[in-house]
């Protein structure tokens, strides 16, 4: 690979691209090294490129020389800038200010460099510290830092490197989701990587660290695991992955970490067995579809039903004309259009143009299926543009014979105006509903592919659904007949939603009318006047905590994998080019009107009447009768900290709080929360927050001080 011109790494739907060329990012971490044993990029980068990598990740910034060397070897650089994110930077604003200054200074010096691929603003803020500071407050701070950096480098992708212990911490304005993941068996990876796809929402997901220590594991085990991880990342539709690390020379604060050996090469620069395996596979990988094979290649009929959709149809058919799949056809079903639809459709000689009298959406979809020759019927709308690899990912979802239908996300393209931007972020957009990470309860009709056998078994679409609701009804009837609905996170279509608020509200009225029909056909699936989904609704935004979220922390915040126990529908942020007080006000107005318009239309057409009820009480994150809070800190050695303090208190009768509580221990009338901070390599700072009745402050603090003294912690 080589650079041609000022190509910049960019987001391309659920994937990444370099300029106009989509690519699977094959990355390896480089450094940090011991101060007395640094590796020379001029020597190592040619080795990295020859192995087949196309990117490196660095943690301590990048010099001009390093970036130039990367460019010479065709390597993209993902850059992290160190600052004190492992301390309570909300309580100490100086720490955050220093970090922001370092990030901005780097961008001012090197932001335009063509080898600079992305900026990582922070890496793995410790889960206990996030819990201490407050997840939504930390996420807000990360988003503010990203916005600040974006003002300096508008075209540079920016992200935060997250990890499974803070699944809920995704910044909503990051350009892609980045996760450091260490799983030591292939089966666990196959289960977890699709989870990350759904956490990311509309965005690409990039693994920013993955590796295996060869001190505790055999070097051959490392080779097998990393090769398997590469295959699983491709199969899951990820944007790329990063191996940790290039070398066993790895340091923290300039000191060699001798107890770990994650490198692909040893301390003496010799190669481990994994290098031979990677040299065989990495150079052949460009994108997942180019590297994976289909178990079967069913013929697919793409059916586009339209009624007076000429304005959007040409773009849709242009996208269909470049689909990468060996065996497919495209049919346009004209449902009695009176505009230029025939002229647009017949302009594409490879497209089969079919016309019927205006009978509604379900009728048109059944007509298209009857005329189609494919084993799979792929439905999309005239205002959609399927991704070039859409059919490839869809076909993979039908390997299991009980999969009756499959689909993927629908992503809004960059809005062309203010109102379109507002509608793209408003509630009520076509969304998939997932019961599991790869199993759906509902798939929107704009990205819905049905097995012909399954479609025939339920008698096709129900004709009473003229404009909407047909997809919901179809999915429910398939599930009732024992078919499965598969979700393919990489199989996306671009979906240009309503371009004005008025059209959006009319659409919501149509959805309400459809819900009236659905309630008659499926009364058991409605509750409190609306549809009762068993699964989670995904509306495009990343799964991220807010002030109302209930998070599974595990006992005393020690769960290895922490995520949202209950969450609201993830929302897309307003497009940053249209984010203003006016647009935010109009968005709030849409959010207010949408449920009213939909509920009224549902009731007016014979559906359940809207029910107004109190919002559920917030999750009880607080307990006892405490009304005041005190904070103290203790200083210990590098090996004495939070765990020792908690153990000491438990021996004195304190009990752990619940798995979803933001408190560690309770001993009536006290509640306690703690967090660790590393202060250099020699010391640990333990922060403690005590909730107590005002008159019991001294007693509570005395109990903490005594427990701390017993384990060798001193008041700070």
Topology summary:
Blueprint: E1 9-12, E2 15-18, E3 21-23, E4 25-29, H1 41-51, E5 55-58, H2 64-72, E6 76-80, H3 93-110, E7 116-123, H4 127-133, H5 135-152, E8 158-162, E9 177-180, H6 186-200, E10 205-209, H7 219-235, E11 240-243, E12 251-252, E13 255-256, H8 273-281, H9 288-291, E14 300-306, H10 310-321, E15 328-335, H11 341-346, E16 351-356, H12 361-371, E17 376-381, E18 384-386, H13 390-397, E19 403-407, E20 410-411, H14 418-425, E21 432-436, E22 439-442, E23 448-451, H15 452-457, H16 470-480, E24 484-487, E25 493-495, H17 501-521, E26 526-527, E27 530-531, E28 536-538, E29 550-552, E30 563-566, H18 581-604, E31 628-637, H19 642-651, E32 655-656, E33 665-667, E34 670-679, E35 683-692, H20 697-710, E36 714-715
Parallel strand pairs: 4-5, 4-11, 5-6, 6-7, 7-8, 8-9, 9-10, 14-15, 14-17, 15-16, 19-24, 20-25
Antiparallel strand pairs: 1-2, 2-3, 12-13, 17-23, 18-25, 19-23, 21-22, 21-28, 26-27, 29-30, 31-35, 31-36, 32-33, 33-34, 34-35
Helix pairs in contact: 3-5, 6-7, 7-8, 14-18, 17-18, 19-20
């Amino acid at each position: 690979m080589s650079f041609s011109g000022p190509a910049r790494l960019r987001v391309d739907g659920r994937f990444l691209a370099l300029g106009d060329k989509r690519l699977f990012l094959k990355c390896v971490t480089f450094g940090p090294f011991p101060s007395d044993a640094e590796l020379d990029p001029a020597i190592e980068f040619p080795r990295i490129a020859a192995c087949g990598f196309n990117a490196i990740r660095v943690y301590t910034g990048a010099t001009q020389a390093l970036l130039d060397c990367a460019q010479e070897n065709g390597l993209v650089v993902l850059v992290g800038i160190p600052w004190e994110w492992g301390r309570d930077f909300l309580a100490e604003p100086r720490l955050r200010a220093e970090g922001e200054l370092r990030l901005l200074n780097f961008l001012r010096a090197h932001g335009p460099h063509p080898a600079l691929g992305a900026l990582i603003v922070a890496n793995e803020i410790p889960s206990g510290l996030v819990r201490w500071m407050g997840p939504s407050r930390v996420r807000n701070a990360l988003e503010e830092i990203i916005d600040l950096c974006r003002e300096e480098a508008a075209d540079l992708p920016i992200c935060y490197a997250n990890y499974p212990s803070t699944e809920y911490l995704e910044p909503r304005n990051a350009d892609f989701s980045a996760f450091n993941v260490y799983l030591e068996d292939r089966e666990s990876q196959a289960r977890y990587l699709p989870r990350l796809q759904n956490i990311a929402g509309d965005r690409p997901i990039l693994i920013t660290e993955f590796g295996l220590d060869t001190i505790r594991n055999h070097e051959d085990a490392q080779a097998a695991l990393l090769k398997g991880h590469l295959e699983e990342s491709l199969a899951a539709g990820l944007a790329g992955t990063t191996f940790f690390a290039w070398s066993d020379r790895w340091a923290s604060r300039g000191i060699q970490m001798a107890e770990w050996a994650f490198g692909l090469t040893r301390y003496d620069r010799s190669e481990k067995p994994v290098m031979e395996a990677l040299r065989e596979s990495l150079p052949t990988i460009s994108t997942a579809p180019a590297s994976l094979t289909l178990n079967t290649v069913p013929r697919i009929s793409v059916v586009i039903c339209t009624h007076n959709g000429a304005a959007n149809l040409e773009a849709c058919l242009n996208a269909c004309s470049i689909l990468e799949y060996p065996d497919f056809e495209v049919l346009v079903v004209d449902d009695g259009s009176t505009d230029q639809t025939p002229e647009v459709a017949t302009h594409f000689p490879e497209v089969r143009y079919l016309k019927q009298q205006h009978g509604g959406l379900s009728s048109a979809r059944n007509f298209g299926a009857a005329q189609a020759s494919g084993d799979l019927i792929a439905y999309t709308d005239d205002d959609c543009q399927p991704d070039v690899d859409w059919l490839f990912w869809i076909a993979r979802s039908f390997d299991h014979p009980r999969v009756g239908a499959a689909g993927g996300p629908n992503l809004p393209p960059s809005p062309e105006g203010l109102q379109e931007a507002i509608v793209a972020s408003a509630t009520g957009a076509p969304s998939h509903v997932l019961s599991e990470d790869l199993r759906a309860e509902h798939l929107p009709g704009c990205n819905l592919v049905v097995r012909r056998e399954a479609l025939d078994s339920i008698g096709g679409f129900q004709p009473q659904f003229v404009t909407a609701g047909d997809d919901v009804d179809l999915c429910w009837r398939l599930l009732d007949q024992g078919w499965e609905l598969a979700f393919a996170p990489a199989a996306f279509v671009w979906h240009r939603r309503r371009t004005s608020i008025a059209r959006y509200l009319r659409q919501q009225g149509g959805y309400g009318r459809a819900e009236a029909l659905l309630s008659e056909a499926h009364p058991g699936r409605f509750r409190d006047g609306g549809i009762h989904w068993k699964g989670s609704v995904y509306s495009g935004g990343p799964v991220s905590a807010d002030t109302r979220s209930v998070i599974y922390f595990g006992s005393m915040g020690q769960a290895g994998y922490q995520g949202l126990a209950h969450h609201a529908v993830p929302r897309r942020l307003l497009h940053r080019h249209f984010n203003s007080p006016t647009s935010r006000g109009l968005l709030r107005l849409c959010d207010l009107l949408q449920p009213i318009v939909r509920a009224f239309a549902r009731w007016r057409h014979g559906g359940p009447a809207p029910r107004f009820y109190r919002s559920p009480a917030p999750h009880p994150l607080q307990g006892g009768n405490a009304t005041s809070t005190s904070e103290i800190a203790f200083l210990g050695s590098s090996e004495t900290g939070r765990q020792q303090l908690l153990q000491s208190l438990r021996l004195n009768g304190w009990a752990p709080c619940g798995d979803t509580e933001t408190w560690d221990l309770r001993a009536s009338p006290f509640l306690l929360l703690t967090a660790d901070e590393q202060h250099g390599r020699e010391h640990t700072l333990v922060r403690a927050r005590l909730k107590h009745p005002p008159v019991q402050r001294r007693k509570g603090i005395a109990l903490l001080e005594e427990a701390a003294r017993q384990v060798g912690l001193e008041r700070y």
